[in-house]
UniProtKB/TrEMBL annotation, chain A:
UniProt keyword terms in alphabetical order: Membrane, Transmembrane, Transmembrane helix
KW Magnesium (keyword) present: no
Protein name (Swiss-Prot/TrEMBL): Stage V sporulation protein AC
InterPro entries, sorted: Spore_V_AC, SpoVA
TM region positions: 26-48, 55-76, 82-103, 124-149
Superkingdom as given in the UniProt entry: Bacteria
Pfam families in the record: SpoVAC_SpoVAEB (PF03862)
Keyword Transferase: no
Automatic annotation (TrEMBL), chain B:
Keywords: Membrane, Transmembrane, Transmembrane helix
Endpoints of the signal sequence: none
UniProt source species: Ureibacillus sinduriensis BLB-1 = JCM 15800
Positions in coiled-coil regions: none
Protein name: Stage V sporulation protein AEB
Transmembrane stretches, start-end: 6-23, 96-115
Length: 151, 122
């Protein structure tokens, strides 16, 4: 069987991706997680004297805490199977990636297991975030010093 | 007014997740690649000065998705770069966005103390 033939057969057998259904599920779950985040933001502003700007950080930390509990109980994996990007894209997905890698790492010990594996999945997000932030800030700095744009 | 802010957070946050889902389904990319793309997108949007207005508009709908991580990294770098020049790019980067990473490390450690591995990815 040549590769082309194989690809055709493979395409025939694989069920078509339900684009719309997946998108809808991601929309609903992602939207709900962000709405919960909005509620937590208000709680911090009303009860703990945070401002609009500073409440964001506290909210993110709280959401990561919620992700930890759900991950430990094995519930976040179930949510992820249903929601796809809806549970992966919010910061809870980042928390889930770190927490699940940390828990799994225990089988290899605290230093080489938990310590080394913690950012196994989430590390790429940090690399590409920091990398792109570095180059964008650099480009803007150069453009400002040339007088093309202002801060 | 309160209801609308929840509605806008729901819609904007949901739409960002739909973008992620489409990158995964249509672009046939892994979740890891998708998240990397979204983080870079958030950083680029802040470089263009577009992400802060989105946060003002959508609140948690813009701060909870991972795009906000790219945004706050860039934002911290830009603010410090304005004050201190070249060095500021490095010193400012984690100024705004420390909470997500420190929370993930602390809670990841606590979770490893409390929960037992189940053999499958949690």
């Amino acid at each position: 069987m040549d590769p082309q033939e194989y690809q055709q057969i493979e395409q025939k057998i694989t069920p078509p991706t339900p684009y719309f259904k997946n998108a809808l599920k991601a929309f609903l779950v992602g939207g709900i997680i962000c709405t919960i985040g909005q509620a937590i933001t208000y709680l911090y502003i009303i009860f703990f004297d945070f401002t609009d700007k500073t409440a964001g950080n506290a909210t993110v930390a709280t959401m990561v805490f919620i992700a930890m509990v759900l991950t430990g109980l094995g519930l976040y994996r179930k949510l992820g199977a249903f929601a796809g990007a809806g549970s992966a894209v919010p910061v809870t997905g980042f928390g889930n990636a770190v927490v699940s890698a940390a828990i799994e790492g225990r089988t290899e010990g605290w230093v080489l297991g938990v310590g080394s594996n913690m950012f196994k999945l989430a590390g790429s997000v940090i690399l590409f975030g920091v990398g792109s932030a570095f180059f964008i800030a650099l480009i803007k700095l150069i453009l400002v010093s040339m007088g093309v744009v202002e801060w | 007014m309160l209801f609308f802010s929840f509605l806008i957070a729901f819609i904007v946050g949901g739409l960002i997740c739909v973008v992620g889902q489409l990158i995964m389904d249509v672009g046939k990319l892994t979740p890891g690649h998708t998240l990397a793309i979204l983080v870079v997108a958030g950083a680029v949007l802040d470089g263009l000065g577009l992400y802060e207005p989105l946060i003002d508009f959508a609140g948690a709908g813009a701060t909870i998705p991972i795009t906000s991580f790219g945004n706050s990294l860039t934002h911290g770098a830009l603010v410090e770069a304005e004050k201190h020049g070249w060095v500021g790019v490095l010193t400012g980067m984690f100024e705004v966005t420390s909470s997500g990473i420190s929370a993930a490390i602390v809670f990841g450690f606590i979770a490893a103390l409390i929960f037992k591995p189940k053999g499958k990815a949690n």
